[in-house]
Write a structure and sequence with these properties.
By secondary structure, the protein is of the alpha/beta class. The protein is built from 2 helices and 11 strands. It starts with a helix and ends in a 5-residue tail after the last strand.
Length: about 200
């Protein structure tokens, strides 16, 4: 057996061990996450679902078109992140809330939860429970500046944050790190192609 053949066999064995380890970790994660208690949206008012009724949604479904039935889309179904369940609000016409906003850039990836291409300089945002896509007005309470954005992504997945703005939207309202903001619903869901404003 040649030296190259031995190296190829050793490489194949390492890859096989990693694959087995990855499968074991995935199985463990799925079993642990099934035991977590659900977290509900701040204005959902819906009754809790049994744990076995909550589907797990992939992080980036390949969908970019909003239509009349967006509540049935995968990105508007209950989902789980880091062991917490989130149940998107089905009707947010009266949504009005204050909380902490942050911003995110290219480090979050290339695709939003709706499947639209993420553009850091666009006027978009991420919210844990608002219906996707939605149009909201975000007002920076420290300076009174506001912007209309399309919510087309999920996040921020921190208990102390209400909304993540794209870098472009954050600049427009003078948000450089964290800020207290007011969020007002303008339109939910946004009709037409949700990728136009991302």
């Amino acid at each position: 057996m040649t030296k190259q053949s031995k190296l190829n066999i050793q490489t194949a064995q390492r890859i096989a061990r990693r694959g087995f380890f990855g499968l074991t970790m995935l199985t463990t994660f799925l079993l642990i996450s099934c035991a977590s208690a659900p977290v509900y949206g701040p204005t959902s008012g819906s009754a809790p679902l049994a744990t076995n009724e909550i589907p797990v949604v992939t992080s980036t479904p390949i969908i970019a078109e909003a239509d009349n039935d967006t509540n049935t889309k995968p990105y508007n179904q209950p989902y789980r992140v880091r062991g917490k369940h989130y149940i998107p609000i089905t009707s947010a016409t009266e949504y009005n809330e204050q909380g902490t906003a942050s911003w995110y850039g290219q480090e979050s990836g290339d695709t939003t939860s709706t499947g639209a291409r993420f553009r850091p300089q666009g006027l978009t945002a991420a919210h844990k429970t608002l219906p996707l896509p939605s149009r909201v007005r975000v007002t920076n309470l420290s300076n009174g500046r506001s912007i209309e954005v399309i919510v087309n992504d999920r996040g921020p997945f921190r208990d102390d944050r209400l909304i993540d703005l794209s870098q472009g939207a954050a600049k427009k309202i003078g948000l450089k790190g964290l800020a207290t903001v007011k969020i007002e619903m303008l339109e939910a869901p946004v009709k037409g192609n949700s990728s136009r404003s991302s």
